[in-house]
Amino acid sequence: MLIRLINMPLWIFLLILLAIAVLLTLVAIQKKTNRAASIASGLLVSLVTIGLLLGMGEAYYRFVYADSGWGFTLAHKNWESRYWQVNSRGFRDSEWAESDFEGRSTIAVLGDSFASGWGVNNPDDRFPDVLANLLGDDYAVVNLAIPVRVRRNNWNCCKIIHLSNPISCFYNTSSMTLNSPLPV
Asked: What is the mean pLDDT of residues 21-37?
């Protein structure tokens, strides 16, 4: 019974609450029994207060709150729509042209959600971008990390943007070593 109540469409739930409010209003305005009218008035005030609080909570979590956690929640969808922008190749990085690599040493960052910056609102705060800022303009740091990417397919990401000879590829997962050379 409780599961059916939880999975009920919102409009049916609101219709039930409206029916209860109308019933309480009718009982509250009747003049025959003061005791029933008093109880109904108190319940109506409680119902309106709870409805307002739930409505404000719903509005906050639907339009204001954003979280990178559970993928099926509205808070996650809010976070993703605000902070997760990808380039034309599907990576959470800026657009790169082949001319951007000329005369620069290239570092390709491969990995999973940590390397791509899952949960990081500002992409400038991810470690590939911090590394790029520390190294300066002589280096092109390319973030090729994709959340939930199978590791053996990460090497293929270098081919997507035509990186023929990056200096090194960094993995940032707990089961991989850092500074692994690109296989020949």
From this structure: 80
Strands of the sheet containing 105-110, edge to edge, are 139-143, 105-110, 169-171
pTM: 0.58
Nearest to 83 by CA among 72, 69, 95, 96: 69
Count CA within 13 A, CB hemisphere, residue 76.
Answer: 7
Give the C-alpha separation, 139 to 100, whole Å: 10
Terminal CA-to-CA distance of the chain, rounded, Å? Answer: 61
CB atoms < 10 A from the CB of 176, how many?
A: 14
Outline where the chain has alpha helix (H): 2-6, 10-29, 34-59, 74-83, 113-116, 127-135, 151-160
Phi, psi for residue 148 in degrees, rounded to 5: 60, 30
Task: Locate 162 and state its tokens.
Answer: 């035509």
**Contact status, residue 37 vs residue 28, Cβ threshold 8 Å:** yes
| CA proximity to 119, closest of 143, 83, 81 | 83
Write phi, then psi, for 102 (nearest 5 degrees): -70, 130
Q: Are 118 and 131 spatial neighbours (Cβ–Cβ below 8 Å)?
A: no
Bridge partners (DSSP) of residue 170 are 109
**pLDDT tens per residue across span 89-133:** 888 888 888 788 888 888 888 777 888 888 888 888 988 899 889
Distance CA(138)–CA(79), nearest Å, equals: 33
